[in-house]
TrEMBL record:
The keyword RNA-binding does not apply. The chain crosses the membrane at residues 6-25, 107-128, 134-155, 284-303. It comes from the Bacteria. Keywords: Membrane, Transmembrane, Transmembrane helix. This is Type II secretion system protein. It comes from Saxibacter everestensis.
Length: 310
């Protein structure tokens, strides 16, 4: 049994060394990697939006310096190797985080939970608690994997909540743009004016996209489409397409924006009503279970007496 666990530990260590070599050795970059580097450099000109609460949650001192170094290292690695990260990239964009920061978080949490199992096992051994020697290895691997993939789940949940908030703001933003158009402003001025009415993080992102449109030499609706693609907001992409098709007709734009805003509000209302209906059904099931349990409680003495009499 000891030989088996030794072979398993050696195989796991060899697999880890092989993975590290595959990650950190620099292969000859191909065309796709070079294109990814150029694209990442272009995107790095876009500013990241964080709130005061998010900035106050940062660490300080040596921990902040170490985290910054690891974050920069992973950011460079992700850019050099063209790591796309799939949907995680959209979640990071909506949260205003970088890929290096996300990868560093996965490393720290995974490594921390990996080292937690041997530490707890050592404490229990000092307390004379009998435990098999194979437990810390298995538990460390399991906790390390859980810690490595836990940030993905947390990021997805936070990103989904932010997307819901963003969709609510998009409906209000459309109404504001329509009001500015009715006041005689042009479409670009109406978009920028509507994005300056509040310092909510979603409007700040829209305002930054519109400001960057002038720097990159693109139209405001193209910038909104790029933002919608980056943060995976379908309503923003559809808005950009509609504005691009009807940019020369102010009256049609106003009616189209008002109709889209009403559609978004109706969609949000139906979603809220559906969730409330699910909660009502859950409460009904809970009440039925409580009633059934109470009936069983009342009938139990009589049933037990009848069974005892037989």
């Amino acid at each position: 049994m000891t030989l088996l666990w030794s072979l398993l530990a050696g195989a796991l260590a060899g697999l880890g060394i092989y993975a590290l070599l595959r990650v950190f050795l620099r292969p000859k970059p191909g065309v796709a990697t070079l294109v990814a580097r150029i694209d990442a450099g272009r995107k790095s000109m876009r500013s990241q939006t964080t709130t005061a609460l998010e900035r106050s949650r940062g660490i300080s001192g040596f921990g902040q310096s170490l985290n910054a170094r690891v974050t920069d290292f992973f950011e460079v690695q992700a850019t050099d190797r063209g790591w796309q990260l799939g949907k995680v990239r959209n979640d990071l964009a909506i949260m205003g985080r970088s890929a290096g920061q996300f990868l560093a978080t996965k490393l720290f949490i995974g490594l921390g939970l990996f080292l937690l199992a041997p530490f707890v096992w050592g404490v229990l051994r000092l307390l004379s608690v009998p435990l098999p020697s194979a437990i810390p290895l298995v538990l460390a691997v399991v906790l390390g994997l859980v810690g490595f993939f836990l940030p993905d789940l947390a990021l997805r949940q936070e990103a989904d909540r932010r997307r819901k908030d963003f969709r609510k703001v998009v409906g209000v933003f459309l109404d504001l743009v329509a009001m500015n158009l009715a006041g005689g402003r042009g479409l670009p001025e109406a978009l920028l004016a509507a994005s300056t009415v509040s310092e909510h993080w979603s409007l700040v992102r829209i305002r930054q996209a519109l400001a960057n449109a002038r720097l990159f030499g693109v139209t405001p609706w193209e910038a909104l489409g790029v933002l919608g693609e980056e943060i995976a907001i379908d309503e923003l992409r559809d808005l950009a397409g509609a504005l691009g098709l009807a940019a020369d007709d102010g009256a049609k734009i106003r009616s189209s924006l008002s109709a889209r805003a009403a559609t978004l509000r109706a969609k949000e209302l139906s979603s809220v009503e559906g969730k409330e209906g699910e909660r009502s059904q859950s409460m009904l099931v809970a009440q039925l279970l409580l009633s059934a349990g109470f009936l069983v409680f009342l009938a139990y003495p009589a049933i037990a007496q009848l069974l005892g009499a037989q």
